[in-house]
Model the fold of this input.
Amino acid sequence: MASQDAERAAFIVKKSEFEKQATVIRAGGEAEAADILSKSFQASGKGLIEVRRIEAAKDIAETLARSRNVTYLPSGQSVLMNLNAK
Done:
């Protein structure tokens, strides 16, 4: 019984050490990824932000186009609607 408790304690210690090591490695990888992203953003200027803005606008336009309850009216045009239709 005592030897099993000692083995269990040793296992827990090793497991904790591996988890600590994994956390350090993961944090290092995340820091490196953040550094790479930061350098990419600096190199590309506002180009990436503009691409993301265009992609978001495209997604919104596609969603609105599929919706049956939304009608697009180009600016500068007037539309008369009979809201009292029977």
